[in-house]
Amino acid sequence: MNDSSPGEGHVRVVGTAHVSADSVREVEETVREERPDVVAVELDEGRYRQMKGGTPDDIEARDLLRGNTVFQFIAYWMLSYVQSRMGDKFDVKPGADMLAAVETAEDEGLDVALVDRDIQVTIQRFWRRMGTLEKMRMAGDLLFGVADARGVGAVLGIAVGVFLGPLVGLFGGAVGVTDLLLTRTATAAVLGAASAYLLYTVASFSLDGDDAVLAGLGGGAAIGIVVGFGLGLGTGLVSGILGSLGTAIVGSLVIGVLAGVVVGVTAGAVLNAFGLFAPAESDADYEEFDMAELTDGDVVSAMMEEFRRFSPGGAEALIDERDAYIAHQLVALRQSGRHVVAIVGAGHREGIENYLAHPETLPPMESLVGVAEKDGFPWGKLLGFGVTAVFIAFFVLLAMAGVGNERLLTIFGAWFLINGVFAAALAKVAGARWTSALVGGLVAWMTSINPLLAPGWFTGYVELRHTPVNVGDIGKLNELLSDEETPIVDLVGQMFDVPLFKLIMVVAMTNIGSIIASFLFVTYVIPVIASDLGGVAGVANLMFEGARNSADLIWRSLT
Prior knowledge:
Elements: E1 10-16, H1 21-34, E2 38-41, H2 45-51, H3 61-64, H4 69-90, H5 96-107, E3 111-114, H6 119-129, H7 132-143, H8 149-171, H9 179-203, H10 209-230, H11 235-273, H12 283-287, H13 291-294, H14 297-310, H15 312-335, E4 339-345, H16 346-357, H17 379-400, H18 405-429, H19 434-447, H20 455-464, H21 472-481, H22 488-496, H23 499-529, H24 535-558
Helix pairs in contact: 1-5, 4-6, 4-21, 6-15, 8-11, 8-23, 9-10, 9-11, 14-15, 14-16, 15-16, 17-24, 18-19, 18-23, 19-20, 20-23
């Protein structure tokens, strides 16, 4: 293609399929035949260095405190995993076309230009442009590679159940959840967990990894249900160990999680029945692709358009903006009088060629770089400020109602302690260092009153001071996910050995611990420490009294 003005160079755009062996041959032949001044490739500096065997850039610890770094890596992991699976089916390493272009240019003594936008900028803008539902669907699509909608429903049900549990403890009496039911449920959970571990340990001597896990889980569940819940054996022991508060917490959480799983699995079964979620592509589905057709720009563009329907905001950052960014680079090379062969993904070819033919339509370069702004009303910020305001109002209104400083300090101390214990404990369960877990626990009280902050960021910050994490870890995770022979228990252990996965889990578990603690504080702790004030209802009445006193004070000040 040459839409240049007299005196300018010209650009030929070659569209490739990133997992196609035919594309590799086409790239090599085109570069050797054309012998351009410059071979432009759809790479940025970081991916080029990694492709040439260099070390990827580490995550900067300070970047983690900006909030979305881990989520952006998860998005990058999702995209990379889909591409790597296609590469496995076609026995071609993803990005082989770009590597072929670079190596052929170097063999021929030609200049190489890296014309793509920095991958970190692209992923950051991709994540910010995606809506919440789109992010959930993308996460679900990754899970569908190993489970159908019922499995995903179960995972989501567990997440919902964690939040539902405290509500069961708070309002369960209204729907028939008695203290006896909570006690027996907690007993079943404790006996079941202990039995499952023992049975797994014994079964692992004679059964393969996954079979031993199933034997342990199945046997533990049966013992917990029959012995702990049905017969009520061990209730005294469990109640003595956990105490009345601990028994109520465990019992209500288990009921909440079970209810969430039932709802999630049921919803997943309905989705499967109506075909609203298609299962992951099978090997046969991949084999039906004609490789000659896959390299055709129209076919790949159709795949891009399918993604656009899935996520308009994500497509804008991942496709449209990069078309414009790459076209800016190519227009500059053309204006310098260079003959350029540009190797890009087939899905980008049409957009880039349109910009090359009509460069006046290119958006300003400054609109394509930097932090992307979210469209629409900032509901997240509003929620964050609202939660903070409610927390501050809680203590102010109690003070205005005449509650003494000693009682207020007791309530605040309980808030600090329960947030710190849960956040630090779950961080440690995920494999965090003691120093990292303690930092997350110390800031959990503060971050839990502002959803715009998260204790996991601080835990992750300390972790990154000791363990480097970079994009290269994604390749290791993709290899593990494609392993169908290693038992699940061993596979999970190997994933925790990958620094990126461990960081994600540490950050997530710290945040989950703080969230659970916040619910438990309202549900269980306030009724205990404020029992002489009338429990939750009494505290609410005091807050109303504090509001009236505040209103009277303001009115007297104004009049």
